[in-house]
## 1
Amino acid sequence: MKISSSTEYAARLMAVLARSQSEASVSAERLSALENIPADYVNQILLKLKRAGLVESRRGQGGGYALARPPQSVTLGQIMRAVEGRVFEDVCEKYESGERDCRHQSRCAISPVWRKLAALVESYLDGVSLEQIMEEKPAACGAAAAGTSGGMQWTTRPH
Amino acid sequence: MKISSSTEYAARLMAVLARSQSEASVSAERLSALENIPADYVNQILLKLKRAGLVESRRGQGGGYALARPPQSVTLGQIMRAVEGRVFEDVCEKYESGERDCRHQSRCAISPVWRKLAALVESYLDGVSLEQIMEEKPAACGAAAAGTSGGMQWTTRPH
DNA sequence: TCTATTCTTGACTATTTTAGTCAACTATGT
DNA sequence: ACATAGTTGACTAAAATAGTCAAGAATAGA
């Protein structure tokens, strides 16, 4: 279980755009340089964010991307859905679609657990807004920062 | 984000063993038939569970696998760690290991969020025991069961 | 002891997903 | 018109996952 690089990248790109609201727009190339993400990949991700209505774009000279909505109304859950389609894929989905035979003795006794987990993850990510990320003191990337940081005080908002 | 089939399978195999405590042991072949999982794959998974000390095995005729510990002291978190190595892989791990350049403007402002999420997931899975799964009314596999089920009443135990 | 049973080991292959690339095109400002 | 910059979809490469295989070692029962 992990966060995909698309989601990680999307979150970082959105964070940059949130911090760049004073500027009219930021070009994909500039975002690529700032976040050290392959330019073509940046374009691909931004396009998905645009189609999901999370960012706006302007072509031509001086064009680029900008947040479509205020940072407090954009959540990580929305960002993740924009680039991956869903936050958490239920295991049983593949069985439902007839791909496999779902008959087994423990008849999905565990599936409620996965569903609860999925709900937990979704509600957490839907509770973290871009604004909260902006306010966060950027922690140094590394295990050392995990314990000492003053962050992580966000709570989950049920939906 | 999803649950891998190894973890799903491992959980189901453990559930069967938990329900079969009256029997001395259950063979891999029988487990394979009961849960409709490829026999060789079952062996592979059980071996990991054994190495993690979650199950015991006996060879020869009448041999097979059995729970090494009582169901209430085995959690989904332990099962997942046994087959996958870890529950949640932090995104920044790969950066830490020098694989990539970690310098970017938003200097892991989001990483505390991923860490919090990982902690949430781990503490949830470490709070669900095999015994709880046994008690769960097996829900029919499918979206229909998601809303109506009487399950999902488990709470997270902090660790 | 011989044999069938069943776990053990590690390497191998196939499939799927993820990550990243590319080329051709369209819109816009100067 | 021309340079800048987003748009589109197809393509490839790499990695992770899922599943297979074959040869071996322990054990129970005949």
## 2
Amino acid sequence: MAKIKATANGSRQEAITKKAAILFRKKGFKAASMRELAENIGVEAPSLYNHIGSKGELLQNICFKIASLFMDQLEVVENSKTTAVEKLDKLIRFHIKMMLQSFDEVFVANHEWKYLDEPYLTNFLTQRKNYEGKMLQLVNEGIKNKELKNIHPHVAVLTILSAVRGLEFWQRHKKEISEAALEDNIVEHLLKGLIK
Amino acid sequence: MAKIKATANGSRQEAITKKAAILFRKKGFKAASMRELAENIGVEAPSLYNHIGSKGELLQNICFKIASLFMDQLEVVENSKTTAVEKLDKLIRFHIKMMLQSFDEVFVANHEWKYLDEPYLTNFLTQRKNYEGKMLQLVNEGIKNKELKNIHPHVAVLTILSAVRGLEFWQRHKKEISEAALEDNIVEHLLKGLIK
DNA sequence: TTCAAAAACTAATATCCGTTAGTTTTGTGC
DNA sequence: GCACAAAACTAACGGATATTAGTTTTTGAA
């Protein structure tokens, strides 16, 4: 009956994956059922399997798409010849943009990765460890340069990543402030502090 | 066979709740089964119901215990006659202590509250909104005082709360640094920034 | 119009879940 | 050691889950 609509430039599988991201974000991977996903699309659950392999595969697609977007951007930033502070600034702004523009997918990658099956789980965690390792190097570089304070670099990376991740709670306040102003405020806070 | 051991100063129900927090944190509320919880305790699943009402009740106990600990401390800080900066400092340090000392429970309260049934869900969210509202007031006070920069107060609260919440990832690095030094680093970063 | 491929459908399966009922074992105060 | 309460056990139920098999409908190009 109701056919699954492929978006202008995207396969049917991608349309399903996008809907899955929204559902997984709202309900969590385990609590989200294929029946409910099908209902959101306007189709019976078994029909989904004409387009996808399994529920787990949907999660894989979401997590790894997001992971590689972040990885690519990190490489771009790493290769830009500029100060450590400027690199961190760019990276923080990218995280904020991703959080606002691909909210559901980023949320799922951040929270539901633990339901990945092996070997995807290990692969994902390795990628994340690499990402954090490279950010750590960046902060270390800044400390050595005397651009940055001598804050424990691991703690600094954690604080930055956690702060931007926390934008998942910003959805309800989206209209309070422009995206540019939001970026500026967070970068200012994280790099220069809250105290005058 | 294996009886459920009540801890020195705690009921059997509390012993089960503690184990449930660990399991809910590891697997997520939906993916954690009563059978697995029972197995971790060394008992058959139906035996648990001699001590608890339901799976959902375990989640309620965890979430509301944590919520009230935070609420109590916030009131203590609010009533201390001191600067806004000092109040924020105290609050941040309390969050960090909670994160390190009651890791599983705080994690569950932060991540699994969405599986609370009504009316507990609404109640919990109301409490959290109140908490954030009072922190917002605190930041506003600091801005008015000219203790704090004119950063969008809502963004500042979000950044602080997210940064401390991110300590859930610190478990694997616990030995790198003392708890006191961790507190100092994060407070320094959040209040005075990363740049020299 | 035809005909093959794509994609929908219905029916069904095996598994797991939280929980209840009913029974037996264990622990404790006399 | 006896009785009563606490807490364990086994068996089972109703419901939800992801997925498969087999069939029918829809689509689109020749």
## 3
Amino acid sequence: MNIGEAATRSGVSAKMIRYYESIGLITPPARTAAQYRVYAADDVHTLRFVRRSRDLGFSLEETRELLALWRDKSRASADVKSLAMAHVRALEEKAAELKAMADTLRHLATHCHGDHRPDCPILADFAAAPTVQA
Amino acid sequence: MNIGEAATRSGVSAKMIRYYESIGLITPPARTAAQYRVYAADDVHTLRFVRRSRDLGFSLEETRELLALWRDKSRASADVKSLAMAHVRALEEKAAELKAMADTLRHLATHCHGDHRPDCPILADFAAAPTVQA
DNA sequence: CTTGACCTTTCCATTATGGGAAGCTTTATA
DNA sequence: TATAAAGCTTCCCATAATGGAAAGGTCAAG
């Protein structure tokens, strides 16, 4: 199949498939005489794996490691698990960070009239000297 | 004061101060005969405002709007508040997204032995046909 | 045989930040 | 004072992952 079909079937854009190939994340497929890339069903499988990994927030480099583990039939599941759990912690940390920002801002907004008047605790806070805010 | 001191006092790196100037976020300061940038106390104030805005996750474009509102003494606090609340929603949405990824992955990891054996539900999931996972 | 859909490569843009080089200035030290 | 260190200037490059567009070749259907 051509790259377009592989893209549709895997959920990875043709653009990205070429990119992944260029950085060595996936192996270069065969080519027709006219240089068209030709993919096999198994390649779509790999692309789906990458897609899933990306959807779960793994970077391409992490995805590269996961792919290597996937291909290595003698891997230790402990290796996969530790990689996954490290990522879980990173995700949770990032989520908590965003939540903290939201909470701080929501708190400030609570005290803002939100009417025609110019007074605004949000701007006042931004303009204030650096302090550890709630 | 020179850019280094302004950087230290504001918490914005000299590199970033120059960049903010280049994109018109802050106004170009005066220069000495030797072309050194000269900042006033008020400039540090502005830089701190930008820093705080960035720390709360606003993009530079959003920060630009906030700065404009800050400078506009006849602004309506409603405008500030709506900008802030839109951002709060975006932050919470993003946080929820990350949390969902973490939950999914943690769930998969729960069923992974995490020992020397190669069998791993995490990789199995990644390799599976696209399905709506828990 | 033409048209349209699809493929190819290459270049550019995004967001915000850091690193480094080459060269000038100012300050501190011997 | 001479010199070195620290600080400033501009310019270029790199990052992560993706999309867009241009210019041109290919293939299938009408």
## 4
Amino acid sequence: MALSHALLVTLLDKPQTGYELGKRFDRTVGFFWRASHQQIYSELHRMADKGHISSNKVAQADRPNRIVYTITEAGREAIQHWAALDSPAPSVKEELLVKLFALGTVEKPVITRLLENRLAQHRERLADYRRVMAEHYPQAEKLSDRQRGRYLGLRLGIRTEETGIDWCEEALQTLSK
Amino acid sequence: MALSHALLVTLLDKPQTGYELGKRFDRTVGFFWRASHQQIYSELHRMADKGHISSNKVAQADRPNRIVYTITEAGREAIQHWAALDSPAPSVKEELLVKLFALGTVEKPVITRLLENRLAQHRERLADYRRVMAEHYPQAEKLSDRQRGRYLGLRLGIRTEETGIDWCEEALQTLSK
DNA sequence: GCTAAATATGCAAATAATTGCATATGCAGG
DNA sequence: CCTGCATATGCAATTATTTGCATATTTAGC
């Protein structure tokens, strides 16, 4: 199970609560591995049982209590062991493309609408990633190893969105003919 | 559940057996939606119960019997209804990228090896897609709607592999410094 | 003062997906 | 002749994921 590994990797950064992990998942590793908060919370319990993380309850007077998780030495070892294994082919679930394959049975305007939505999403994300890039990686030359991994992830994100935009535009053009 | 829809869309082409669906899944829609044969067989039973497909047992003397599935009118309607709904954000599970985020804890050579494997995969697939393109869509101008959907899917496949190759090369370069 | 959003965690039920196994035959290569 | 691959379908058990619900507080906007 790889969700646990995605969580471990995120915890390398610093100790975090389930809630924080859920949010960071949406911006960093989350681009490559999505999970709902329910999944994250229950996975964290299992990981603590295994000893890959340790938990620390923090009582807060004003807000609900927090449980801060820290990666353990065993957790770091688990990451290293897992990293050396061959990765399974990435799993893909692209509904929009399946719908596109139904063109001929499904009317063009229906597909066109979906493509326009998708295009807008890509543009938003690209702007987002570019902002992060400008803020966090102004000069790409001088990066620590740790930063370099994240930098490259962001680079792929940017390339992916650019490709998505180009393709959506091509598809809309092709459909309008 | 969208696997059923992916199967329905594939059946638009022609009646097929579970085995054939499994194989075609690997080359066409399968680029956007993967499923194991067990999943496909059990899903087909459920779809037949719902009336979205009809089944036809064909006894074969020499080989195991086949069950040929045909999409029904109800199945076509189900596709149209589903196509008009907003698509959920594509689910992503990219282990390699999660591993990359662990750079600093995981040694560079480990990651480099993974990237090289990935690069080789991208190149193979790209060659594959280009072959299909040359064989099936020699002149992209004159396509029926049905073909156009598939053509665009292939175009995205090609763009995606190209992007993957460029990025892997950039990543390997960045890591070697 | 009311409403909504953000903070913070979790259970329970239902669905989906993976993994391991089982069966049976034909054909090609060594 | 033996091995492995392709054909062809499926059950059972486990694991992963989604969906719906539940609770409780703070802060910001109207």
